[in-house]
Amino acid sequence: MRVITGLARGKRLTTPEGEDIRPTPERVKEALFSAIQFEIEGRRVLDLFAGTGQLGIEALSRGAREAVFVDANKNSLAVVQKNLENTGLLESAHIKNMDFASFLMQNEEPFDIAFLDPPYRTGLLQRALPMVAGRMNKGGIIICEYPCDDDIPETAGEFVRGRSYRYGKIQITFYRHKDVTSQ
């Protein structure tokens, strides 16, 4: 697993052993970032259920202003910390060791881009999605990664389901505000 492009291009990211963390496959990450490549620079990013932090790190490498990494697992956040140090992107990052719901209830400042890639088939995505929608800027994007056979809602707060892309057994879906033209 590596950073695809930007300031930290080519830097290898640490992935812990075991099945507790399921990193986004590189081809999926590359396609995801190709779809939003012109919407990253200067933006505030949320990497909820951060795991290794690779999505938020990729966004920082591509010019995001700041990224907040949230995970309830201390071991995951230790990996995020190490990956941020190795890529030289730690200064633009905030790491939060807390449950997603607690974080979203406490967070006041809105996000421009949110990555939601929780453990599969736990119902966490369906619970987190409307809460995240309430913490987004109107022009923001919520990006969800989930198994193809999972159901996700058509709307989340004022955000509506837009384009979806399938990569094998993985689905990526974009949500945008109902008043913003879909891209």
Automatic annotation (TrEMBL):
InterPro entries with a match to the protein in the record: DNA_methylase_N6_adenine_CS, RNA_MeTrfase_RsmD, SAM-dependent_MTases_sf
Gene Ontology MF terms: 16S rRNA (guanine(966)-N(2))-methyltransferase activity; nucleic acid binding
PROSITE patterns registered for this protein in UniProt: N6_MTASE
Keywords, alphabetical: Methyltransferase, Transferase
Keyword match Coiled coil: no
Uppermost EC category: transferase
EC number of the protein: 2.1.1.171
Pfam families (UniProt xref): Cons_hypoth95 (PF03602)
The organism's place on the tree of life at top rank: Bacteria
Name of the featured protein: Ribosomal RNA small subunit methyltransferase D
Organism of origin: Caproiciproducens galactitolivorans
Gene that encodes the chain: rsmD
